[in-house]
Design a protein that fits this description.
A: alpha/beta; Rossmann fold; 2 domains; 4-stranded antiparallel beta sheet; 10 strands; B: ABC transporter involved in vitamin B12 uptake, BtuC; two-stranded antiparallel ribbon; 16 helices
């Protein structure tokens, strides 16, 4: 396996608050990498830095060997690195199918293509992915009228529609009915194996992340606290302390 | 298309063609109605479909007027000589010169405005919400002031164009059909545009621009193209208006920010933002309302118009079509989940 995302010595401060200090980590191509840490440890800040949401103060971020730390959000998305939002973002006024169709990968279209209509193949793909996340029955409902959990699933399906190489998921199971979490874990794993999408996941639910990830990084107070396989992380005293507040 | 729709469109087309003959006294009014429909439809492209409320679209109207006039005059005379003569007798145009002028002038106006929209958009599309509205308004006001001080194109006096060669009433018909033709072409164009991926991308920018960016949509490219298309049509109707008015000046007729510049926004709000029929319906309602107040409440017309604007903006932002969409979503093929179903949870 080779590296797809390489973060090296990244620092980011908001005024005097250091959200990320000298963070280095790598995400292997084709795998599932986890990012954990207590609230306020800088996980979302790191995600935002990777996808170009804000400039970083120091360090370098590479995607498929290309330096992306100075690129804006759209350009990074067009390289095939997508993210979903912690506060789910979908197009509320459109229905499920429309949400899917607008997520077609524009980077693979010429400008002339955008003046065409969506093909039967596009509709089939939208239906297939909505079926995949279990929203097929609700595909013609206004997305804004769906429950939070359903919107989260829709956002995930939209990300898949975009055919990314790498996908950053910010707390994919937050707000989802506990009985459905197992189904979601299964779908995330299938997205990884069947669609070949590299996943990088922020997750608070330990059971979920321990079940999925090949490798886990743990942040605390803006610093990289530990890294390793799920077993190593589970038995790392520093991680346990950070979560229990002894740090 | 269903038979019902075909019949509907044919009857609208028939009525449009027959209207100036059925109501010969209202030919100029009907032409102005089409002007309102066109500026409302183009305003809705960015304001309704894309979520960028421009108050500066009137800039393209005025610029179109001037570009067309300069083109038409420039083909025959030296523009500086013509404007400084101002009624001094060198405004003789042959029929061919007149019609070539109006045709080439309109095309030039449309193209010039489209290019200007890209340039101005490149600067102003960095602004969001009210800042974009004020920024574009500033462009329109500044342009009016600049043109009033530019003697080569007549300065504050404006330009006097040649009169329609031929019968006065035929001239009215001529302008009516120029406006109506442009309006119909625009309507068909928009109906097609909103059905393409380009149309969905515009809606995505309106609903959540940050999400659209995060999904890799070329937001700036779509915004510039959409505004350029709108500017193209506004430029053309500005050009036609210039020839219809014969004599126009910069602040009151060309860059009329407080009249047509605001009217187009009210038309769209009244009819329903972000819909194809909303601006059309709104323009008709507004135009009728405006003519009635101007005729029967003279002296109070601005007060009444102001009251209409306040009521629309405060209590009726969704407009007629928007209100119908909320009350009768099934008429528009929109399905909304009931609360009970939503509570049943995700993904079953």
């Amino acid at each position: 396996m080779n590296t797809i995302i390489e973060v090296k010595g990244v620092s980011k401060a908001y005024g005097g608050v250091v959200a990320n200090a000298d963070i280095s980590m790598t995400v292997e191509k084709g795998g599932i990498t986890g990012l954990i840490g207590p609230n306020g440890s800088g996980k979302t800040t790191l995600f935002n830095s990777i996808v170009g949401y804000h400039p970083i103060d120091a360090g370098s971020i590479k995607f498929e060997g290309k330096e992306i730390s100075k690129l804006p959000v759209q350009k990074i998305a067009r390289l095939g690195l997508l993210r979903t939002f912690q506060q789910t973002r979908i197009y509320g006024a459109m229905n499920g199918v429309e949400n899917m169709l607008i997520s077609l990968p524009h980077r693979k279209m010429s400008f002339a293509d955008t003046f065409g209509r969506n093909s039967t193949k596009d509709y089939e793909q939208a239906d297939r992915l909505l079926e995949f996340v279990g929203l097929y029955e609700k595909r013609f409902l206004r997305a804004g009228s769906l429950s939070f959990g359903q919107q989260k699933l829709l956002e995930f399906a939209m990300a898949l529609m975009n055919e990314p190489t790498g996908l950053l998921l910010d707390e994919p199971t937050a707000g989802i009915n506990p009985t459905l979490i197992n189904g979601l874990i299964d779908r995330l794993k299938r997205a990884n194996t069947e669609f070949g999408i590299t996943l990088f996941i922020i997750e608070h639910n330990m059971r979920v992340i321990m079940n999925m990830a090949d490798k886990i990084y743990c942040l605390a107070h803006g610093q990289l606290l530990a890294e390793g396989t799920p077993e190593q992380i589970q038995h790392d005293q520093r991680v346990v302390d950070a979560y229990l507040g002894a740090h | 298309m269903s038979i019902k729709k075909i019949i509907l469109y044919i009857s609208i087309l028939a009525f449009t063609s027959a209207a100036p003959f059925l109501f010969p006294d209202f030919r100029t009014q009907l032409a102005t109605l089409w002007l309102m429909i066109i500026v409302a439809l183009t305003w809705d492209m960015t304001g309704g479909q894309m979520g960028y409320n421009s108050l500066g679209n009137i800039f393209f109207y005025g610029t179109g007027m001037y570009v067309a006039a300069v083109t038409a005059i420039g083909l025959v005379y030296d523009v500086g000589d013509y404007t400084s003569a101002a009624g001094g007798g060198i405004n003789d145009f042959t029929d061919t010169q007149y019609f070539t002028g109006i045709f080439l002038g309109s095309i030039a106006a449309g193209l010039f405005c489209a290019v200007t929209a890209v340039v101005i958009g490149y600067i102003t599309f960095g602004l969001r919400g009210p800042y974009f509205a004020i920024g574009t308004l500033g462009v329109a006001i500044a342009a009016g002031e600049l043109v009033s001080n530019w003697d080569w194109i007549g300065g504050g006096q404006g330009i006097t164009l040649p009169v329609y060669p031929g019968d006065f009433d035929v001239g009215k018909l001529f302008f009516y059909f120029l406006f109506a033709g442009t309006g119909i072409v625009l309507f068909i164009f928009l109906k097609w545009l909103y059905s393409t991926r380009f149309g969905s991308a515009m809606n995505a920018i309106r609903d959540d621009e940050e999400k659209a960016e995060a999904m890799g949509i070329h937001t700036l490219r779509y915004k510039l193209t959409a505004w350029a298309m709108a500017a193209f049509f506004v430029g053309i109707v500005g050009a036609i208006s210039g020839f219809q008015l014969i004599s126009f000046e910069p602040l009151e007729s060309a860059y009329q920010t407080i009249n047509l510049g605001i009217f187009m926004v009210i038309c769209v709000l009244l009819g329903g933002k972000g819909t194809l029929w909303g601006p059309v319906l709104g323009a008709i309602l507004f135009h009728v309302f405006k003519e009635v107040t101007w005729n029967y409440f003279l002296g109070w017309q601005w007060v009444i118009l102001g009251a209409l604007i306040v009521v629309t903006v405060v209590y009726f932002q969704e407009g007629v079509i928007g209100w119908l969409m909320r009350r009768k979503p099934e008429w528009f093929g929109i399905r909304v989940e009931s609360k009970d179903q939503a509570a049943a949870g995700a993904g079953e």
